[in-house]
Design a protein that fits this description.
The chain has 176 residues and is mainly alpha-helical. The protein has 9 helices and no strands. The radius of gyration is 17 Å and the shape is globular. The protein starts with 15 loop residues before the first helix and ends with a helix.
Length: 176
């Protein structure tokens, strides 16, 4: 593992807002991941994101964990993130028990044996990740036509945007 390009504040040295943020993360994760620790210069940012962990499905209730990890994997691949795609494919393999599926999804979700409904959703995720300015109401309507509910669409956008953000944090500070 590479050392991040910005200092990481060790837990034992954290005080004030940073300590409170670290304590929230420690309560759910038992450790402070480097992807969070590199943001120690803005502890309220860390605290805000402390609620978006796999343990609570990234704060989503309308989609399941498998789908969240599929979205996160596709976002990581679309962003060409050295951390995101591989890390979430590993998570997907762990929760699904299907390593071959997780790797197939990471290599090309369109040929990974997904349902047409899931491909439609991941096409939306890909477009939102690669060309967010090109999104239209028709994109949302196509998700509805495929059978996705509005809460599921909101959760998809949240997970997509969250991991686009985290991929950029990882890339900006050399976290891999």
């Amino acid at each position: 593992m590479n050392k991040p390009w910005i200092p990481i504040a060790p837990v034992e040295q954290a005080t004030g807002d940073l300590r409170r943020a670290y304590d929230k993360i420690l309560a759910t994760r038992g450790r402070i991941p480097d992807i969070r620790a590199v943001m120690a210069g803005e502890p309220l940012t860390i605290e805000g994101f402390a609620y978006f962990f796999p343990d609570n499905n990234y704060a989503c209730t309308s989609i399941d964990r498998r789908l969240s990890e599929m979205i996160a994997t596709v976002v990581g691949v679309a962003n060409e993130s050295a951390l995101g795609g591989p890390a979430h494919a590993r998570q997907l393999a762990r929760i699904s028990g299907d390593e071959a599926f997780a790797q197939a999804l990471r290599l090309d979700y369109k040929t990974a044996g997904l349902s047409a409904k899931e491909v439609t959703l991941l096409d939306y995720v890909w477009k939102l990740t690669k060309t967010p300015g090109a999104m239209t109401e028709d994109d949302v309507n196509s998700l509805r036509a495929a059978g996705w509910s509005d809460p599921q669409i909101v959760a998809t956008v949240h997970v997509t945007a969250f991991f686009a953000y985290m991929n950029r944090v990882a890339g900006a500070f050399g976290v891999a």
